[in-house]
Specification:
The chain is mainly alpha-helical and 408 residues long. It has helices at residues 2-11, 24-52, 78-92, 98-123, 132-152, 215-236, 242-261, 264-270, 281-299, 308-325, 332-335, 337-360, 372-378, 383-403, and strands at 158-168, 173-182, 186-188, 196-198. Strands 1-2 form a two-stranded antiparallel ribbon. A two-stranded antiparallel ribbon has the order 3-4. Helix 3 (78-92) crosses helix 10, helix 6 (215-236) packs across helix 12 and helix 7 (242-261) runs parallel beside helix 14. It is globular and about 65 Å long.
């Protein structure tokens, strides 16, 4: 909203200094400061409100050190993240940008699913919360919306070289390609030269018009990524500060990808895919990072509030949509390696337990407990040490992901 106000002041009234709002870098800086301020100052009030409403965490008995002390700690703290993210977004972004619209929808959609889950756990006294099938339906529904919009909307394009044009110079005629913005399901394969890959090519066996059926591949992939990453973030939210901290690192790295992919100069210099209008997502990312860091003020050990599914599902959904929008979804296993390992540890544990129970009559375990962070708790590591080391691994993975801009 403020963006349009300052645009009017600059272009219509010619007021000096108002043109600075046209710059993504300036609006991103304002967004991160505003979201950080909102989450730290008003976050305390939201925590007080949740405590007064007796929105406390019900802790399952898992035999973990310090577990009982967490009982009654306010949950649904994801509301702080959502509030602190969306207010700067509404104030500072171009609200007619299709990528911003998708991210707002994702935030509200996944936040609602998580809120319903937390509400059932707390007020209905059902520890299972929202049934898994309904969570999956919600995630698939969002995937259908996001995938369909990215595939069909005319504003979602990539820039490629088009027909050549002749440029006249003093000494010679120069033939140079004209840029063309076109619809595409192309993505980026990390670590490879000439690393663009079009999902439509998987259907080349269907004949000459195979590109018309690219949605058969693209939309299911979007659904899978959103479901997997949101569940990964949900599983990671098990100890104080782990999910918020690792997510902030991953989102910050995605912010770098978004900025360079949405800037014609940087994308040309780095020889990466230029995605018109995607740079606006940088402002959203700045707001999201500020909200996550501000939330950490209260969620770090010992936590004064938990994000609940309201926050964890929202975080996972937003990260997935950001990665898909900037055509970096194949980097998710590396960039969100913490989520992947946490997910994989559960799958391995459950699969091995079922296999050994069927074969030997007694279930056996690979880890002392899953997800993986609980395994280290069982081994006697303190929560803060586990979280700090996971953050360090997350930083290393983020750096390696950013290096892929040139390492190929």
């Amino acid at each position: 909203m403020l963006y349009y106000l300052f645009e009017y002041l600059d272009k219509t009234l010619n007021i000096p200094g108002t043109g600075v709002f046209q710059y993504i870098t300036f609006r991103s800086a304002v967004a991160v400061l505003l979201s950080l301020t909102l989450s730290t100052i008003y976050g305390k009030r939201i925590i007080g409100f949740l405590r007064n409403q007796q929105v406390g965490e019900t802790v399952r008995e898992l035999g973990l050190a310090g577990q009982n002390e967490k009982a009654g700690t306010p949950t649904m703290g994801g509301l702080i993240i959502i509030m602190a993210t969306l207010i700067p977004v509404f104030l500072l972004t171009k609200l007619n940008n299709i990528y911003i619209i998708l991210l707002i929808v994702t935030t509200l959609w996944m936040g609602t699913i998580g809120f319903i889950d937390d509400y059932i756990k707390i007020f209905k006294k059902d520890k299972q919360g929202l049934k898994g099938i309904f969570k999956v339906i919600g995630q698939v529904g969002l995937g259908l919306i996001v995938g369909s919009v990215l595939y069909l909307h005319p504003g979602v394009t990539v820039r490629k070289e088009g027909p050549s044009s002749i440029t006249l110079k003093q000494t010679e005629n120069v033939i140079s390609p004209l840029p063309v913005d076109e619809k595409s399901t192309a993505t980026t394969i990390p670590f490879f030269k000439n690393n663009e890959f079009d999902y439509a090519e998987l259907l080349s066996w269907m004949g000459d018009d195979y590109e018309n059926y690219a949605w058969l591949i693209f939309i299911p992939i979007v659904i899978f990524i959103i479901t997997a990453v949101s569940n990964g973030a949900n599983l990671t939210d098990g100890i104080d500060g782990l999910a918020a901290g690792t997510s902030a690192i991953s989102v910050l790295a995605l912010g770098i990808f978004t900025f360079v992919s949405g800037n014609v100069i940087f994308s040309s210099y780095l020889n990466i895919m230029y995605i018109p209008n995607s740079g606006e997502m940088t402002v959203f990312i700045a707001s999201f990072v500020g909200a996550l860091v501000g939330f950490l003020w209260y969620n770090s050990y010992p936590a004064s509030v938990f994000m609940g599914d309201t926050g964890s599902l929202t975080i996972g959904g937003v990260i997935a949509v950001l990665a898909i929008s900037v055509r970096k979804e194949l980097l998710i296993p590396l960039l969100c390696g913490i989520f992947l390992v946490e997910n994989f540890s559960v799958v391995l544990q459950v699969s091995y337990f079922k296999y050994t129970k069927k074969r030997f009559g007694e279930g056996r375990r690979i880890f002392l407990m899953s997800p993986l962070h609980h395994h280290y708790q069982k081994k006697g590591y303190h929560e803060s040490k586990i979280v700090t080391r996971f953050w360090i691994v997350g930083i290393l993975l983020a750096i390696l992901s950013i290096v892929t801009l040139k390492l190929r």
